[in-house]
Design brief:
It is a single chain. The two termini are 29 Å apart. The protein has one domain. It has 81 residues and is mainly alpha-helical. The protein has helices spanning 9-20, 36-46, 62-65; strands at residues 50-51, 69-70. It has a two-stranded parallel ribbon with strand order 1-2.
């Protein structure tokens, strides 16, 4: 998590609550991005009924990678699941 989030009121409140419950807070950097192979392994292990690509410029290519049904959804589009 970007360290700046810790200064936002809601996050700070949550972290303070965790500390009050004797949790220890550790800052650990992660990119938050998985490569295609890892995403495919996850999808194959979970075997969902469908996959909805988010936060990607390549949603049209998901159908070439995944065996599961792929639902392409546009930004701000509302769907029922």
């Amino acid at each position: 998590m970007w360290a700046g989030y810790k200064n936002q009121e809601t996050t700070k409140k949550f972290l303070d609550w965790l500390i009050s419950k004797n949790f220890t807070i550790h800052d650990i950097h992660t990119s938050g991005h998985a490569n295609r192979e890892i995403l495919k392994q996850l999808a194959d292990a979970l075997n969902p009924k469908s996959i909805i690509p988010v936060h990607t410029f390549e949603k049209k290519r998901y159908k070439d990678v995944f065996d599961q049904k792929v639902n392409e959804v546009d930004d701000n589009e509302v769907i029922g699941i």
